[in-house]
Amino acid sequence: MVPDDMGGRWAEDVRTDTHDILSGAGRAILAAAGLFLVWSVAYPLDSAVVAEGVVIATGQNKVLQHRSGGVVAEIGARDGESVEAGTVVVRLDPIHDQAELTRLRGRLAVLDAMRQRLEAENAFAAGGDTALDGRFSLLGLRRTAEAGPAGTVGPDERLLQEQAREFERGRGAALAEIEAMVARRDAVGRRRQGLAERVAAVTAQVASLERQVAAMRPVATRGHLARKVLWDAEDQLLARRAERANLAAEESALADEVAETGSRIRQARLTDQRQTSGRLTDVIAEIGQIADQIRAAETAVRLTEVRAPVAGTVVHARHRTVGAVAAPGEVLAEIVPAGSELALKARVAPTDITHVRTGQAARAKISALNARLYDDVPALVTRVAADATSDERTGQHYFEVEVRLRPEQPGVRDLLGAGMVGQVYIEGERRTFAGYVLKPFADSLGRSFREP
């Protein structure tokens, strides 16, 4: 029950108008709007380009391959094992490369023996007529290998002996041909000498007959000598003159034959030298080619031991069984370098690549790290691809961006490893909320007033 003294008067003090309530709400709304306006204009917001990626070692995994492949003979390190630089990871059976090396070395030994023989033949052929005297010998031919045990003949020595016999046969044939021509030249020379003596004798007879005929003519003219005797003497003189002319012509022909035979001898010697020099040039050229092939074969034999180029951890080992066949150029394993810095290789969409540049700060969220215990890993953009890459499986285009991870929180570096996946937030341009809202209108307005 309401006391009588308050009957009806308390209601007079209750404010029932709405003016004060509305004015207070309006002021609160205006204040909030003002604060929002100030915030949207004065305080910039962060923006970021988000991309998926995988953690890699900045040193790049070292790929182990073999040029010609082969059969796995030994596995020195398996997947996940740590190795030092120079450790044998895989050793291939070198039997095929070793056989090729042996074949090439044998061919080189044959070529070297041939070279020495041809050099000796060249020196022999260049000796001229002096080389025709005396017995044959391997001029300049020398052994190229160490002598074997007493009483034994090594393969190199047998090669030299065979080349010595070839030298004797070849030089014997060349000498026989040249000696035959020399003998012919000498015989023709002797015939020429005999003709020269006969020409001299006939010339003396002609001179004697000329004196006799000259003395007979006055006597026959005076009638003291029968003319038939004079005529017989003149006939003898003419016969001797004709004989002398024939002998002189025959001597000249023999002189030409001697000169021609000498030219043939020189031509035979030059031809022999030219052929020998040509064969020697071919042998020397082949020796150079074989030498390069031997170096390549030696390298192949040496590289059958596939060694780790750096210290690190073996990953992606392809073969786990001795006797497996490695294809030529096949990736046998990879080495993750120890102690190298880590980076995250991300795929950025072509629509966002204009907002990414080298040197930008970034944050990486690694999925393998517990988000409740570890913060995002600070990072820095170190490389932006100059061209887009297409995913062969999906056909999607993307730009490859590499960000260097810089973990600051203790223990994070030890937890990170190549192959982990995560997201990277590449910090973009900071702008206010008002700028973000008004930019589309400003861009549209700018395009409207731009001259076509």
UniProtKB/TrEMBL annotation:
Occurrences of domain AprE-like long alpha-helical hairpin (ranges): 98-298
Compartment(s) where it occurs, according to its Swiss-Prot or TrEMBL record: Cell inner membrane
Gene3D superfamilies: 2.40.30.170, 2.40.50.100
Cellular component per GO, a single term: plasma membrane
Membrane topology term: Single-pass membrane protein
Any GO BP: protein transport
One protein family per Pfam: Beta-barrel_AprE
UniProt xrefs under InterPro entries: Beta-barrel_AprE, HH_AprE-like, MFP, T1SS_HlyD
Family, as annotated: Belongs to the membrane fusion protein (MFP) (TC 8.A.1) family.
Protein name: Membrane fusion protein (MFP) family protein
Taxonomic source organism: Methylobacterium hispanicum
Gene that specifies this protein: prsE_2
